[in-house]
Write a structure and sequence with these properties.
Number of strands: 16
Helix content: 40-55%
CATH architecture of the largest domain: 3-Layer(aba) Sandwich
Oligomer: single chain
Structural class: alpha/beta
Length: 488
């Protein structure tokens, strides 16, 4: 594979590719029936692979003291080959828990104060991407289209190019990308940007993120903006664009309607005793603004004493990345804050905040969304936030709830009929909660219809088709990329 030329490795610009190769840090394991049984994104990528046929490649999630450099686990289910590799324990510590989650993640979420910069971890990040590329190169066939996902894999395209892979290669970043003044704090920043010019198409959740990234390339002198999303780096020409991810709108709507009769939903409804429900659902992460959200709800209760005993806030927050110290600390801080709020505001027959630190089946969640008067989605920074979209899609159109949404979530660019708030402003967010609970039925229906129109026009299937079709349709003149090797 290392000797392939541009002419033999690139598929035709028109018509479907022979196969689609999807690369992600983790690969969901198919169950015996062939389905992956995972969340919305995984189901969407599975749908893309079923439509095109191909390979899903990435880390198995397993770590060992040492591994066979050539070992690759493959399982073919229908038209999809699931190909995974283990990593060494040291690589998991340095590449995944280290640079990916303690440098890239906080910096991309504008949290320089939480970032940890370590040269060994930086080198491991690029080294593991080279390791992935070495294994993947043996699976890529001449006409394949390769689609790389998320911040763990940013240098992978350049590592593939250095092995002579001239196929069309696209990249999609699921998290935000900050402006140059923030992003440039990353160790290995120049090397990272240089490697990104190896892709033919680079996708982001919002126009804002795409603009930030393009300016980073220009500021560092790695590319020239030639207009309409096109950039030139040496002899290479590539495109940067926004592809906002959607949800399976119809499936969410149907699941929410069915959930009304489920036992779990009925128990929750009975336990409320006619109290109004505000709901938040987030992975346990400092980017989600949980502490600020709790503070806002307590502020709401303080400013609206008549709401005491009549409104309950349910926060569902499964644990996340417990190996990272910052996540263990926020778990303790949020639990303490909830306890203090309930002690100060609650009564013997009313707990103002119900906090569940566990996973809940998705079908049950859609039922909880449907019965909630307010969806409180207030991250401090988020690439998109699909909870906001799922809350809207779950509503009863005859009596919909109100979405209170952070202006710093990518979803705010599309769902501008929500009540948009600054999550750092507890008083302003409290006022939005009050407005949502007092809103007339006519206004609620109007706002919901406006947002639902967006969700029906731009589903998750529209998202993946849009990206893949754009990648396939790009002019077939991109260079094989020796000048953008990841070791630059």
């Amino acid at each position: 594979m290392s000797d392939r030329s541009e002419e033999t490795s690139r598929g035709p610009a028109d018509g479907p590719p022979a196969r689609l190769v999807i690369v992600s840090n983790r690969v969901p394991a198919p169950n015996p029936r062939g389905a992956i049984g995972a969340g919305g994104l995984a189901v969407a990528l599975e749908a893309a692979l079923k439509a095109h046929g191909g390979v899903w490649f990435g880390w198995s999630g397993e770590s060992r003291p040492a591994i066979d450099a050539e070992a690759l686990r493959q399982q073919k289910v229908g038209p999809i080959t699931f190909a995974t590799t283990d990593l060494t324990k040291r690589d998991v510590e340095d590449y995944y828990l280290g640079y990916s989650n303690q440098a890239l993640w906080p910096v991309c979420h504008y949290r320089l104060d939480l970032a940890r910069f370590d040269d060994r971890e930086t080198q491991a990040y690029f080294r593991v991407n080279e390791f992935f590329a070495r294994k993947l190169a043996n699976l890529v066939e001449p006409d394949d289209v390769v689609w790389v996902h998320d911040y763990h894999m940013m240098p992978l395209g350049a590592a593939l190019r250095s092995r002579g892979i001239g196929n069309r290669i696209g990249f999609f970043l699921h998290i935000p990308w900050p402006p140059h003044e923030v992003a440039s704090a990353l160790p290995g920043y120049s090397r990272l940007l240089r490697s990104m010019s190896a892709y033919d198409l680079i996708g982001f959740q919002t126009e804002r993120d795409a603009e930030h990234f393009g300016r980073c390339l220009v500021e560092e002198g790695f590319a020239v903006n030639v207009g309409d999303g096109w950039f030139e780096s040496g002899e290479r020409r590539f495109r940067i664009a926004a592809f906002p991810i959607g949800i399976d709108t119809d499936a969410i709507r149907i699941a929410a309607a069915k959930s009304v009769g489920q036992a779990a939903t009925r128990r929750m409804l009975a336990s409320l005793h006619d109290k109004r429900l505000v709901i938040g659902v987030d992975r346990l992460d400092y980017s989600k603004g949980l502490r600020e959200r709790i503070r806002s709800f307590v502020t709401y209760l303080a400013e609206h004493p008549d709401a005491r005993g009549h409104v309950t806030y349910l926060q569902v927050t499964p644990k996340s990345r417990s190996e990272v110290p910052e996540y263990r600390r926020i778990e303790q801080e949020v639990a303490t804050q909830v306890g203090e709020a309930n002690g100060a505001c609650g009564d013997f027959d009313w707990t103002p905040i119900r906090y569940l630190n566990q996973n809940i089946p998705h079908a049950t969640l859609t039922g909880l969304y449907r019965m909630a008067d307010v969806g409180l989605v207030t991250p401090l920074r988020d690439g998109m936030n699909l909870v906001a979209k799922e809350y809207v899609a779950s509503q009863d159109e005859t009596d919909p709830g109100v979405l209170v949404l952070s202006r710093y979530a990518g979803a705010a660019c599309e769902l501008d009929a929500a009540l948009l708030v600054n999550p750092y402003d507890a008083v302003g967010t409290a006022a939005a909660i009050a407005r949502a609970l007092d809103m007339s039925l006519g206004e609620r229906r109007e706002r919901w219809r406006s947002m639902m129109d967006v969700l029906e026009r731009h589903t998750v299937n529209d998202w993946w088709r849009g990206f893949v079709d754009t990648l396939q349709a790009l002019p077939g003149d991109s260079d094989s990329g020796e000048q953008v090797g990841a070791t630059g």
